[in-house]
Amino acid sequence: MKFILTVYALLLLCVTLKKVNIVEAKKPVRITDELDDVVDDEEDEEWKEWGKPKTKIPPFDPPPDITDMDPSRIQAEMLKRHYGPSIGFVKLRLDVPRTREEVPGIAKKWTQLLRTGSIEAKFMAVDVNTVMFTMEQGQDTAELKDFILSQPEAYEFKLGQQAYRRPGDPPLEEVIEKLHKNDFEAADGGPAKQSHHKDEL
């Protein structure tokens, strides 16, 4: 009998404690409508930086000693350390016939492909053989050069006075001279298949 009373008392105690917890959990939280005296000063640095473009801070990379370097290595080092805006040109392959409408399509395609790789570069068609590019962040110039030279339409990447081509490709002047020579020979024997003059857009 004592055992039954003890079990009954424990059961009654458990039920009472559960009711208290349920009642406490159901108490509504009351927020007043008078918030004039509340000061909201919880803006942190992340909130202030939200929406601003992120700037890449490159790791410190001291320039190497250039006294014993060959000129191509010096140019590669200069290209790697360029941080300001960049403007340059891409010469398209001259031996490939294309229309004036195709060049803006190439420029648009390159802009979109680079955007997926988080490189902000904009391309604009200049003429049927030339595309101009602009970049806000010059530190991506080396990646841009590698991308351009991997595209089948591109022949030469020019930044300032420096021109970059695929290994083994002759200078652009030699290609132009060869094409003019072929056009001249074709004109002597009959009409030329394609004239390679500059057609502005």
Automatic annotation (TrEMBL):
Location of the region described as Disordered in the Swiss-Prot/TrEMBL record: 44-66
Signal peptide start-end: 1-25
Pfam families: Mesd (PF10185)
Keywords: Signal
GO biological process, one term: protein folding
Entry-linked InterPro entries: MESD
Domain of life from the UniProt record: Eukaryota
Cited PANTHER family: OS03G0148300 PROTEIN
Protein name per its UniProtKB record: Mesoderm development candidate 2
Organism: Taxus chinensis (Chinese yew)
Source species taxonomy: Eukaryota, Viridiplantae, Streptophyta, Embryophyta, Tracheophyta
